[in-house]
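2024-03-11 09:14:02 DEBUG pipeline.ingest accepted 1 chain
2024-03-11 09:14:02 DEBUG pipeline.ingest length=393
2024-03-11 09:14:03 DEBUG pipeline.predict start
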Amino acid sequence: MAIKSFHPPQRILMGPGPSDVSPRVLAAMARPTIGHLDPVFVTMMDEMKALLKYAFKTENELTMPVSAPGSAGMETCFVNLVEPGDKVIVCQNGVFGGRMKENVERCGGIAVMVQDDWGRAVDPQKLEDALKANPDARIVAFVHAETSTGALSDAKTLVEIAHQHNCLAIVDAVTSLGGSPLKVDEWMIDAIYSGTQKCLSCTPGLSPVSFSTRALEKIKSRKSPVQSWFMDLNLVMGYWGGAAKRAYHHTAPINSLYGLHEALVILQEEGLENSWARHQKNHLALRAGLEAMGLNFVVPVKDRLPQLNAISIPDGVDEVAVRNILLNDYQLEIGAGLGAMAGKVWRIGLMGHASNPRNILVCLAALDDALGRAKAPVKRGVAVDAAQKVLAG
């Protein structure tokens, strides 16, 4: 069988990720490959560290992209900070809090779970109570922006509580970086990880991370070796450190890093605060259209993540059939529910390059048609007008 070149269709990506990638990022990734120790490439690495510091709002020296997806960024935080026997308070309000628990246990730690309803923010009082009940805890871990539900938690308050009990704080910012206010230094976050495929609008495959001085002190004072050779920051920093001479650790994904560099340049050009404001305004426009149709959000307004909108599926509607209409007839991808929300919600992403008025109006018009065909109990022909009124401001 003669297999030919692969040519993917042009989709509009409005699911939970990946998001649409800027043409500038794709063009950057097509530039000539050079060596990962080339002096020119090392200069670009230093620029990327500065751009990531800007995106995270931090001066942490240990700020860099892990050469693997967001899940590896998560693992990098846990394998470096959690030692066998360490007690870790893990706040779970969706799928990804559960993955934190798995990481703790695979590191030999003891996970103490603080459970909140899916679709709700993490409750600071529950964290406070758990820390009082477990005075020997060493780390608190929580998801800032829970991708499985669209809930946004108060990271600043949760980190403050962790520090009051002499714990480090590990934060999942995979869906919030670049899209929602996130201030690593001001909020005194100790370890944080994200992904490139959400609000940064780069391709999947890299995970920005940042570690505070407090976190580095814990890593350096470990009693046992980091269980992962590839993710051991003591080794990785020989390559990503600030010294002129870089030690070989692994062959970096060179062209993917070109893409991330360009994505971060785009973010800098727009301005971080302007990006936050754009995501919020576009969320309000999409919300107006969805609510005009009669669709309901899962997450209360005060807990709602602007770039990931979880919508309850109307009674009697075949949710897979609706998504298939959107994909096949409109080249539009939205997400299904995960875990406890599987079959109950759609997840509509408005992230990065995909967070724009055109996508909002296309999505609402396509949903109007698909739900009409599904004979769903919604109001037809009103969603686009409602969104346009918000966009017109």
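2024-03-11 09:14:41 DEBUG pipeline.report The first strand starts at residue 12 and ends at 13.
2024-03-11 09:14:41 DEBUG pipeline.predict end
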